[in-house]
Design a protein that fits this description.
Number of domains: 2
CATH superfamily of the largest domain: Spore Coat Polysaccharide Biosynthesis Protein SpsA, Chain A
Number of helices: 15
Helix content: 25-40%
Strand order of the largest sheet: 3-2-1-4-6-5-7
CATH architecture of the largest domain: Alpha-Beta Complex
CATH topology of the largest domain: Spore Coat Polysaccharide Biosynthesis Protein SpsA, Chain A
Structural class: alpha/beta
CATH class of the largest domain: Alpha Beta
Shape: elongated
Strand content: 15-25%
Length: 473
């Protein structure tokens, strides 16, 4: 049984192109309906489309009062298609830079993917007739979306097919752009929410029917959105993902350090600035070091427990290779974790002093910047509980900030400035047990039954955290 399919084309001053585009699509013989959304074209495109409805009974036309933005037109088409029960939505431009003959290949690609896009970067000579300036600007846009948003695809094009029967409708509500930025933002959000994306090569000839409607102002706005998306993804990647499951809350737990306040959205300028710096540090240094130490000590598919998991901003890469169970006493942190890492095996509301709810026989246990917030006696309890849940030969990985780390002095200075300003707020709970020496570490870990196999401290992260690997002996 054929899936209910809609082909959508936005128009603004396409009086000459719209009838020809409609004829070419009709000649394909697809079992599909066609939707045009016209933004009040001064050249009468909307009137021409209304007249064509007499000739094409499967044609629908929606009129909007003025030029409201190409992105908002696509959003409206997605909502309308969902309301009407369409499983497949095809989108393309009306100026014939997108060839209707490629539509069947895009639709076929969605047999194995949630989204299919026509890519200008898969075939040689895919931009025939383009002048040097336009070719250069297009390549620059592709380079920026690859580097800033980590999108390997052709993210700025409108020639796509969405499987609306597979992508949750709420995903599209996360997309805010109303203009041309909609295209790379939508692909970014779809990918962040787990949608699979396929590409087929297309040829994009120089525009011969009409002219580009992207103005310098809209290009500048798209660039601003691109950098804002990249920055927001650094600090709050969870904003681009849907919650995946409910968290079972243990009401018997108390959190004397008030970690919920730390992980909730910041409102004070100083806290916002700290959060930005912390996010940059996590993604620049911690993520890389974590990827390396986990890869060196565990085989793919290993069962790992992340104790005191926090927001899980740096767990994304190892989630692809390992089976991660996350534990934290803060429900705010767990909500962020599951949105950042929807592929996590399990997420538990629990104390790192009692991990019975998480299970046992883990291949590894790790925490990042946790121990310094507890007394020596509490650290011994944490290490003993880690020892208990690990299988024989299992490994413990700990990132522990050093007492003389540059970050410690900077934060002490800044907390002093806040006190002088009469502000009592702290940027994080007190660090009462910063690492002082390797000998101290050896004693604590040995008392808990571990044998230290690796102790790394140096310029890899600006002499901030020691990375300790210990084996259950």
């Amino acid at each position: 049984m054929a899936l209910k399919t809609l082909i959508f084309i936005p128009t603004f001053n396409e009086r000459e192109n719209a009838p020809a585009m409609l004829r070419e699509i009709d000649q394909l013989g697809l079992d599909s309906d066609i939707l045009f959304i016209d933004d009040g074209s001064p050249d009468g495109t909307g009137m021409v489309l209304d007249e064509l409805r007499l000739e094409y009974p499967r044609l629908a036309v929606r009129h909007r009062a003025g030029k409201l933005g190409i992105g908002s037109a696509h959003q409206e088409a997605i909502q309308w298609a969902s309301d009407q029960g369409y499983a497949v939505l095809v989108t393309l431009d009306c100026d014939f830079t997108h060839s209707p003959s490629d539509i069947p290949y895009l639709i076929e690609a969605t047999n194995e993917a949630d989204v299919a896009i026509g890519s200008r970067w898969l075939a040689k000579d895919s931009l025939p007739g383009w002048n040097v300036f336009r070719r250069g600007m297009t390549r620059l846009g592709h380079l920026l979306t690859r580097s800033l948003l980590r999108l390997p695809h052709d993210a700025t094009g409108a020639f796509r097919v969405y499987r609306l029967d597979r992508v949750e409708r709420e995903v599209f509500s996360l997309i805010k752009s109303q203009g041309y930025a909609f295209f790379f933002e939508s692909l970014f959000v779809l990918r962040a929410c787990g949608a699979t994306i396929a590409e087929i090569p297309i040829i994009l000839p120089a525009r011969t029917y009409g002219s580009s409607k992207m103005t310098t102002r809209s290009a500048w706005h798209s660039l601003q959105v691109l950098f804002l998306l990249s920055l927001t993804n650094f600090c709050h990647p969870e904003r681009f993902r849907l919650s995946v499951r409910e968290i079972a809350i243990d009401d018997s737990l108390s959190d004397p350090q008030d970690w919920d306040a730390y992980w909730e959205e910041k409102k004070f300028p100083s806290a916002i600035a700290y959060e930005l710096i912390a996010a940059i540090y996590r993604n620049t240094f911690i993520r890389r070091r974590l990827n390396r130490v986990i890869g060196e000590n565990f085989q793919p598919g290993a069962r790992l427990l992340h104790g005191g998991c926090g927001c899980g901003q740096v767990d994304g890469d190892i989630q692809e290779e390992m089976q991660i169970t996350a534990v934290d006493i803060s429900t705010a942190a767990l909500a962020l974790y599951q949105r950042n890492n929807p592929q996590a095996i399990a997420v538990f509301h629990a104390s790192i002093f009692n991990l019975s709810s998480a299970g046992e026989s883990f291949d590894g246990y790790y925490n990042l910047g946790v121990l310094e917030h507890f007394t020596k006696d509490e650290i011994r309890r944490i290490l003993s509980e880690a020892f208990r849940v690990l299988r024989s030969g299992g490994k413990l990985v700990v990132f522990w900030p050093h007492a003389h780390a540059p970050s410690v002095y900077v934060l002490d200075f800044w907390h002093g400035v806040l006190r002088l300003m009469g502000l009592s707020q702290r940027l994080h709970p007190p660090e009462i047990s910063l690492l002082k020496s390797r000998a101290e570490t050896l004693g604590l870990f040995t008392d808990a039954g571990f044998k230290i196999s690796s102790f790394q401290f140096g310029p890899a992260d600006l002499w901030i955290q020691a990375v300790i690997v210990a084996e259950k002996g």
